[in-house]
Design a protein that fits this description.
Number of helices: 2
Structural class: mainly beta
Number of domains: 3
Number of strands: 32
Helix content: under 10%
Strand content: over 45%
Radius of gyration: 27 Å
Shape: flat
Length: 392
C-alpha cells in the first residue's frame, strides 16, 4: 500500500513539473537594452512631460540654484503613481546640468546622487540613460530614462522624458523563428499599455530582425496574417502568444478607391486591403490610423493620396454581424493658411479630408507638395513671385 501511495505521489509530482515546464515555454523571454538615444535607435517612441511642482516639495542633497525645478514623472510601476525628480545647476550661474530622480522609489531625493548632463546647449540640457529600479513581485526590475530639459530666460520651462530602454529577442511562432521587440512608447515605465489613443499605447514588432513594421500593443497581434492573443509582461520581460480562437468579427465598409487602411485600439493595430470596399475587424473600438489611395496618370506616373494622424473624430465601433461605414479618402480639400509675423507673412499649404488628419500627396514615392504653385503680388504691381522659388 505504501509503495502505491509513493508511486502515485511521484506520478503527480512529475505531471506538475511537466505542466510547469510547458507553461513556462509559453512565456518567451526577451533581453533588456538601454541606450542614450534609444528613441533614434528604436524609433516609435514619444516623450512624456513630467508635471512641474512649485516650491520645494522634497529636499535635495544640495542646491546651487535659488529655485530648483521639481516635477513628477508619472508611472504605474510604483504605488504613488509617480517618482519625484528635480533639475539643478552645478554652479550658481551655470547651465541646468544636474538631474535628480527618485531611483529607488522611496519618495525622497536627498539620498540620491545627481546625474550630470552629457550635453548642454543654449536652451537645452540632455541626460541619460538614467536608471531607476522598480520592486515587483518577482524582485527588482531596472528601467532607464533619457531626458531633455528645455530652458528659456535662464529658467527651466519643461522637462521631456523618453524611454531609455526596450526589450528584444528571438521568439518562436508556430515553429518559426522570428524577432520580437517591445517598446515603451509613452515613456511611463510599462510595456503593455493598450489604448485607442495612439499616444497612450505601447508598441510591438514581430518579424525579421531589423524590421520597422510596428503594431500597437493590445489584445491581439497579427503575425503573417494569423491572429494571436497577446500577453505582454508589464515590465516587458516576456511575451506570450496564443492562437486566437472563436474571435468575433464585424464588417467595415470603405470607398472602393481605398487601397488599404489601418485602424487601432485596445485590440491592437490592424492593416486591411479591402475587397471591393469591404474588410473585417475583431469586434471592438477603433480609431482610423491611416489610409491610402493610388492611381497612375496617362504618363505612367504613380500618385498616392495618404491620410494619417487622426483625432477622436475618426473613432468607430465594430460590432458582430453589422457593417460599419467609414468616410475616409476622397474628397480632400486644399487650403492655404496665412500668418503675419512683423513685416513677414508665413504661408502654409494644407490638405484636409472629411475626418481631418494629415493628408499627403505623393508622386513616384516622394512628397509632391512642392508641385503646388502660389503666385504672390502686391496691389501696386511692383512685386510678383511664384512660390516655391526655383532654388527651393
Amino acid at each position: 500500500m505504501e509503495k502505491r501511495i509513493l508511486f502515485g505521489c511521484i506520478a503527480v509530482m512529475s505531471l506538475l513539473v511537466l505542466v510547469s515546464i510547458a507553461g513556462a515555454q509559453d512565456e518567451q523571454w526577451l533581453q533588456y537594452h538601454s541606450e542614450r538615444e534609444a528613441d533614434r535607435i528604436v524609433g516609435d517612441m514619444t516623450s512624456a512631460r513630467p508635471n512641474s511642482v512649485s516650491g520645494t516639495p522634497v529636499q535635495l542633497p544640495q542646491t546651487k540654484a535659488d529655485n530648483p525645478y521639481f516635477a513628477k514623472w508619472s508611472t504605474p510601476m510604483v504605488d504613488s503613481g509617480f517618482l519625484w525628480m528635480a533639475v539643478d545647476r552645478s554652479s550658481e550661474n551655470g547651465p541646468w546640468d544636474q538631474l535628480y530622480i527618485d531611483s529607488n522609489a522611496d519618495g525622497k531625493l536627498d539620498d540620491e546622487t545627481a546625474t550630470t548632463a552629457y550635453r548642454t546647449e543654449r536652451s537645452s540640457s540632455y541626460f541619460g540613460p538614467v536608471k531607476v529600479v522598480f520592486e515587483i513581485e518577482d524582485g527588482p526590475v531596472s528601467y532607464h530614462l533619457n531626458f531633455r530639459v528645455y530652458t528659456s530666460n535662464n529658467q527651466v520651462r519643461q522637462v521631456y522624458a523618453y524611454s531609455g530602454g526596450w526589450y528584444e529577442g528571438e521568439i518562436t511562432v508556430e515553429g518559426q523563428k522570428m524577432y520580437c521587440m517591445l517598446i515603451d512608447y509613452n515613456a511611463n515605465g510599462t510595456f503593455n499599455d493598450a489604448s485607442r489613443e495612439p499616444s497612450g499605447c505601447d508598441r510591438v514588432r514581430i518579424g525579421r530582425k531589423g524590421t520597422r513594421d510596428t503594431g500597437y500593443v493590445g489584445k491581439y497581434v497579427e503575425v503573417e496574417s494569423a491572429l494571436y492573443r497577446a500577453e505582454i509582461a508589464r515590465d516587458g520581460a516576456f511575451i506570450k502568444l496564443t492562437k486566437a480562437e472563436e474571435v468575433k468579427f464585424g464588417d467595415v465598409r470603405v470607398p472602393e478607391t481605398i487601397k488599404d487602411f489601418s485602424a487601432g485600439g485596445e485590440n491592437g493595430l490592424f492593416t486591411r486591403k479591402p475587397d471591393k470596399g469591404l474588410a473585417s475587424l475583431p469586434v471592438g473600438s477603433y480609431r482610423i490610423n491611416s489610409w491610402s489611395i493610388e492611381r497612375t496618370d496617362d504618363k505612367g506616373v504613380k500618385w498616392q493620396l495618404a491620410g494619417r494622424y487622426f483625432n477622436q473624430g475618426a473613432d468607430f465601433e465594430v460590432t458582430e454581424g453589422a457593417e460599419t461605414s467609414l468616410e475616409i479618402g476622397e474628397p480632400v480639400k486644399a487650403s492655404l493658411n496665412v500668418r503675419q509675423r512683423g513685416d513677414n507673412f508665413e504661408f502654409t499649404k494644407l490638405l484636409r479630408s472629411r475626418l481631418g488628419g494629415y493628408i499627403d500627396l505623393i508622386r513616384s514615392g516622394r512628397s509632391a507638395r512642392d508641385l503646388w504653385k502660389m503666385e504672390g503680388k502686391n496691389e501696386e504691381g511692383t512685386f510678383a513671385k511664384l512660390y516655391p522659388l526655383p532654388d527651393q
